[in-house]
Write a structure and sequence with these properties.
- By secondary structure, the chain is of the alpha/beta class.
- It has three domains: 2-204 and 243-249, TIM Barrel, CATH 3.20.20.100; 308-390, no CATH class; 399-546, Multidrug-efflux Transporter 1 Regulator Bmrr, Chain A (Alpha-Beta Barrel), CATH 3.20.80.
- The protein has helices at 31-43, 55-58, 60-67, 92-104, 119-127, 130-139, 154-163, 183-192, 213-220, 228-237, 252-263, 272-287, 308-321, 324-332, 338-343, 358-362, 369-380, 386-389, 421-431, 496-510; strands at residues 11-14, 20-23, 26-29, 48-50, 77-82, 109-117, 143-150, 168-172, 196-200, 244-247, 394-402, 405-414, 443-448, 456-464, 475-479, 482-490, 514-516, 521-525, 537-546.
- Strands 11, 12, 13, 14, 15, 16, 17, 18 and 19 form a nine-stranded antiparallel sheet that branches.
- The longest helix is centred in the middle third of the chain and has 16 residues, at 272-287.
């Protein structure tokens, strides 16, 4: 557990997805089963329990408190989180910590986290002097250690890590989400400082446990037999910087399966073949995600009563299994008016969204929720084809901060639409070995557009570790460190114009938060790229700044 030196279980119990049952037409946690699951996990080696104020409509901490009676509290490290979005003045800290200790029926919390830190909430915690309040609580024995959970970019993560001598950082990480939010680089940065790194969403809200037939076939033919969930967990456990992995388990079967998987875990134990299988599965999963919602429910309750995650899940499930009848029935069962909402509180469909944008401030995945809800209703309410509403050749964006980079290669100048870029790539591949210090595993395309002047510049080459002795007829270009909105083009290169048109004409003009900062666009090509394949992928990095 980083510099804490604890012997922590490889598997931690995340308490945000307990089993649900209906009581008087209202969904509530099945407390008896949830308590049995927690105690079974503890009896079989789990010694790290994670909960938070908002989980299960503020009931999770109460259930955890009941489960940890009868001597179970002494067997575990207990973690909960300060609801940063509810803190309006310094004194609110004491109010919420006191209530949480009461709900958990404990005298102290082993690690108290600032929940869901982003740039804005981090600045708010600093301005309200919450760090001093944390240290006072620690001095008084109410909390033992201080940490934070995180949902923003690598640059913000690094800034937070460097600001304070944290004991622990909790980040989202799985084989699909290696390069978003804190990223692998952030994980390693924190771990190298001796900070314990705890992983949430290792199975991406359960999504990675529910593969398509294509992915099932890959898993079936793998030399090592694992369930889809175990492939996901073993990927995270394989990373030596990970202290423990949280799984939000919702059945006793899941607890038993994950406990057994944890018993087979070990850092640096995956072979190269296993890593390649996981990479292939990850690419296929990415292609089958319309809206990147993990069902965390941070956006709830919606002031207008929309069940935002459920609307997204119904649509995503339709994209996976093409069961229109099932999807329409589920969508139609949601409330579509204020009168219906009285009978089904907080179970509204997408039409009830009034675009207040409150949810966008809370979403860890930075989903443009009101816009996506409109699309949900066009498909599920109006019967439009998914392909008419969603641009299936384009995924993203995700937001990442990239370090500065020097690129060496060939250039073309003229009208981008008439440039022979395939020939340029072919010429470069024949001459790339001449470049000193090149990084050979990926190629970079750089577009410097002068828009209507018809003298665009396009450079295709390799990034270099150190810039020296540029080969004759090649040039270099320096890319500054900055934030990018990263889109992935899926499919044949011939369809690229659809993706570019979407970014230029829809996403950039319609995004209220970001705008292009004027720097060159970047294309990133690796082993996913095959220009004539429907399964081809490459990334387009659009440099952005906040509007």
């Amino acid at each position: 557990m980083g510099k804490l030196g604890w012997d922590v279980s490889a598997l931690g119990f995340g308490c945000m997805r307990f089993p649900i049952k209906k009581i008087d037409d209202e969904e509530k946690v099945d407390e008896d089963i949830a308590i049995k699951m927690l105690r079974y996990g503890i009896d079989h080696g789990i010694n790290y329990i994670d909960t938070a104020w908002p989980y299960h409509s503020e009931k999770s901490e109460v259930i955890v408190g009941k489960a940890l009676k009868d001597g179970y509290r002494e067997k575990v490290r207990l973690v909960t989180k300060l609801p940063t979005w509810l803190i309006e003045e310094t004194g609110d800290f004491d109010k919420y910590l006191k209530k949480q200790l009461e709900k958990l029926q404990t005298d102290y919390i082993d690690i108290y986290l600032m929940h869901a830190l982003r740039k804005e909430s981090f600045e708010k915690m600093k301005s309200l002097n919450i760090f001093r309040k944390m240290e006072e609580a620690k001095k008084n024995g109410l909390i033992k250690h201080i940490g934070f959970s995180f949902h923003d970019t690598f640059d913000v993560f690094k800034e937070i890590i460097d600001y304070y001598p944290w004991d622990m950082a909790q980040i989202q990480y799985n084989y699909v989400d290696q390069n978003i939010q804190a990223t692998t680089k952030g994980l390693e940065y924190a771990a190298n400082k001796g900070i314990a790194v705890v992983i949430m969403e290792p199975i991406k809200g359960g999504k990675l446990a529910a593969p398509t037939p294509e992915i099932e076939e890959i898993i079936k033919n793998a030399p090592i037999k694992r369930t889809p969930a175990e492939w996901a967990l073993q990927f995270v456990w394989n990373h030596p910087g990970v202290s423990t992995v949280l799984s939000g388990m919702s059945s006793m079967e899941m607890v038993k399966e994950n406990v057994e998987s944890a018993g087979r875990s070990k850092p640096n134990s995956l072979s190269q073949e296993e890593k390649e299988i996981i990479s292939l599965i990850g690419a296929r999963f990415s292609q089958k995600s319309l809206i990147p919602c993990t069902f965390c429910k941070y956006c709830l309750p919606c002031p207008s009563g929309v069940n935002i995650p459920l609307n997204f899940r119904i649509l995503n499930n339709l994209f996976w299994d093409h069961d229109w009848e099932q999807a329409k029935n589920e969508y139609n069962s949601l409330a579509g008016s204020k009168d219906e909402l009285k009978l089904k509180p907080n179970e509204g469909n997408a039409t009830l969204c009034v675009k207040c944008n409150q949810c966008m401030e809370l979403c860890p995945q930075s989903i443009m929720i009101p816009t996506e809800l409109e699309k949900v209703h066009k498909v599920l309410g109006k019967g439009k084809k998914i392909s008419d509403i969603f641009l299936l050749s384009t995924r993203g964006p995700v937001f990442e901060s990239k370090e500065e980079m020097d690129v060496v290669g060939f250039e073309l100048i003229g009208d981008l639409e008439t440039m022979d870029i395939p020939k340029l790539r072919e010429n470069f591949s024949k001459n790339s070995d001449k470049i000193k210090n090149r990084i050979p595993f990926f190629s970079i395309g750089v577009l410097i557009s002068n828009y209507n002047e018809k003298n665009d510049k396009y450079i295709f080459g390799n990034a270099v570790r150190k810039l020296e002795d540029i080969p004759e007829s090649m040039i270099s270009i320096h890319l500054s460190a900055q934030k990018y909105a990263i889109f992935t083009h899926v499919g044949k290169l011939a369809t690229l114009n659809k993706t570019l048109k979407y970014i230029k004409e829809k996403w950039l003009p319609g995004n209220p938060k970001y705008k292009h900062n004027g720097e060159p666009w970047v294309e990133y090509y690796d082993n996913r790229f095959n220009p004539n394949s429907d399964n081809s992928e490459f990334d387009i990095w659009v440099p952005v700044e906040e509007s």
